Amino acid sequence: MKFYIKTFGCQMNVNESEIMTGVLEKEGFEWTENPQEADFIILNSCAVREKAEHKLYGAIGHYEKLKKKREDLVIAVGGCVAEKEKKNILNRFHGVNFVFGTRNYMDIKNLYDKAKKDKRFADFSDNFDKITAELPKHPYSKHHGWINIIYGCNKYCTYCIVPYTRHFEKSRPIEDILKEVKYYNDNNYREITFLGQNVDSYGKDFGDKKPKLDILIREASKFKSIKRIWFLTSYPTDITDKLIEEVANNSKAAKNFHLPVQAGSNNILKKMNRRYTREFYIDLIEKIKNTVPKVTISGDIIVGFPGETDEDFMDTVDLVKKIRYERLNIAEYSPREGTISAKYYEDDIPKRIKNKRFQYLMNIQKQINHEENEKYLDKIVTVIQENKTKSGAYLGRTINNKVVIFESDESLIGKFVKIKINKISAGPLYGEIVSKENDRVFNKTESYI
Length: 449
Prior knowledge:
α8 (about 215-220) packs parallel to α9 (about 240-250) and α12 runs parallel beside α14 (about 350-375). With about 450 residues, this protein is of the alpha/beta class. The protein has 14 helices and 18 strands.
């Protein structure tokens, strides 16, 4: 039996698809890249943006055409859209055999067996306790591992569907997470990323209500093969001084904070229920920059939120200029059915105004990126080489998340290489290899900086 998985959305979905792949392969299924030859198709969905949901529906329609030719094909839809829409997906798409949730994906083989025997169904069981390091997994990368450490979100931002699709925050036991870190260490992985909707809330639900991400990073850094430890996504009010200090003092902790702000106006932040002010956010970033050498900050912003005035938008522009993000994800507001803002706020900003604000902010961010990247020209940086890009060149990332493009070969994937930067852009840096891991000229004392 062959299966195919199409994954939409965030890195947590990617990790969950890796686990589903491992579970099915352990049961004797064979993974295929070609949906045309699959006996079982799984769509792991994302509901954060309306566009992602529409992509899912388009994919379902495409695969339903395959089912008309092969009635025995089983189609399943999981992830956040499944949680949001429940049985509506079954009612709308008659080719879908079953839908499942964000906390029972590890039961994918049992769900498949049920689909072969019974009528179409929906199953949204909460089997969080089954999420352990013992689950089979098939990592898609050979050098970088994703680890989900906390599920759900308690914040209930008015625009966000995630608390309704991922439910309340639940942290995995630290001992179990470290078993998973050991798995990657024993398989000679170089880097890991701790994942969560609010990753820096990790451990607050253990009883003392204190975040423990700093402890987890410190313990994970004791594994020899693991050289870099990343984490995302963070929520501003859950960042602790201990976490900032751990990132500053731990040579394996990536010097990058992905810290969404969403708006620079206190008026809009309040309507979004973001639970902090622009002043708090700016002070937090200053503290991080003053404590962590060479740190970079990335973030998310929504333009055109209901009621956003020109003055509100210019507050956001001002904040972006102050923070000088290394990377900024900008989105135009779109109401998500089921959220507070969709229910109570009129989507009163015209599409043309949203797009105008989007383009204006994007141009400012590009200028900032180019100015910040000028600092790297003619400098030598250390990256871990990743896969080949569409252009045929390879890319790597520095420990502070600067993307570098360079000519190389497949043998260096997952290895440290030193790159001299000879060209910059508003996006990646470009350069050439000057030394690589295992070369005599490769400075061991600086190899992981």
